[in-house]
Prior knowledge:
The chain is flat, with a radius of gyration of 38 Å. It has a domain at 105-162. The strands form 2 sheets. Strands 4-5-6-7 form a 4-stranded antiparallel β-sheet, with no helix packed on it. A 3-stranded antiparallel β-sheet has the order 1-2-3, with no helix packed on it. The protein is an alpha+beta fold. The mean pLDDT is 81. 26% of the residues lie in helices and 20% in strands. The protein has 2 helices and 7 strands, in the order ααβββββββ.
Amino acid sequence: xxxxxxxxxxxxxxxxxxxxxxxxxxxxxxxxxxxxxxxxxxxxxxxxxxxxxxxxxxxxxxxxxxxxxxxxxxxxxxxxxxxxxxxxxxxxxxxxxxxxxxxxxxxxxxxxxxxxxxxxxxxxxxxxxxxxxxxxxxxxxxxxxxxxxxxxxxxxxxxxxxxxxxx
Length: 167
């Protein structure tokens, strides 16, 4: 009984696939546009027909160039853009000093877990500054201190300080 039912449902499925495929083929053939052959010689100066793609694109180009879609007044700005004057109307800011990359040197690791390090060259700190994990020195933060390295993170750079190998 189950075999007859599955054979019948299989036959219905096959008939449906064949019917839908035939319908799809007929719709596909009906949707193909007719090919028109146009004279493509260089000497032709005839204007394209009014319903052609070139005419529609030319009209769209004219509309786009006469209207500035990014301005409410549909006109160019009276002042040229200068990124240096971005906050000119706000508060006058002091010039920012160029970033100087500190030259930090790991001198020693002290203790056991939790480890502490002695680091030279941290900006604004004396030579031989003791560093523990989590210490903050202005914009620099000591993220980790292990038995052989120190990880210091700045706003845009992360330094891994380790001992030099003896040669």
